[in-house]
């Protein structure tokens, strides 16, 4: 897909990976709608060239519907949807607050599915478009201590693969991001919440800008999957028995 001249919507663009992807797309000539929960100085994107903040709230079905209505005519121009926004809850599942369970599943899984459903008909009518879903490495190699997050990302992986095959006879394409550990505020939260049960000091982190550049390259080359490479890339290929062994060695209740 040609990024230059396209209109992109990037959810969760106020920080971390989403901000980096929005900036990367803007630098390559896209008009970027930077989806944020609240449009204000604290939560808006960087203000980089071609990036304009728009309200995009995935916290409930009603807020998703309202956000798309507020986009108005912009919604009909979106060529590239990057479902990046996400939230995390970690620690032992039996101690997880049920309200956090529903929040994670709504923002990470139901919200992106709902948003895609609203924007997809316009893309099909125009005969072009791309859906990019940030499914994360945990969607392929679920590890303990992040049960609900793993469920949401595994579900997003299944949605992505099924949608890609369903759109095969159209001119629309789908890209799954198997995102590695990236140096973001969310990764700091992950490490804090897992610190009691796992040794996280040695985890490798990539810079958000470096990962965003690879995402933009994958969009332009029409790949259907972008994996992290290295040890994390190999993790999704490991048989169940080896994943079980790695979890047993790396996690303790």
Summarize the structure in words.
This protein is of the alpha/beta class and 253 residues long. Helices cover 44% and strands 13% of the residues. The protein is built from eight helices and seven strands. It has helices at 16-27, 61-71, 98-126, 147-166, 185-194, 208-220, 230-235, 240-250, and strands at residues 7-11, 31-36, 51-55, 80-83, 129-134, 172-177, 225-226. Strands 3-2-1-4-5-6-7 form a seven-stranded parallel β-sheet, with helices on both faces. Helix 1 packs across helix 6 (208-220), helix 2 (61-71) runs parallel beside helix 3 and helix 3 (98-126) runs parallel beside helix 4 (147-166).
Overall mean confidence score, pLDDT: 89
* Cα-to-Cα separation, first versus last residue: 46 Å
Low-confidence stretches at least 5 residues in length (pLDDT < 50)? none
Which term fits the overall shape? globular
Helical content (DSSP H or I, runs of 4+): 40-55%
Output the number of helix runs.
8
CATH class: Alpha Beta
Radius of gyration: 18 Å
Main β-sheet: number of strands, strand sense, barrel status? Answer: 7 strands, parallel
Fill in the CATH topology.
Answer: Rossmann fold
Domain unit count: 1
Number of strands: 7
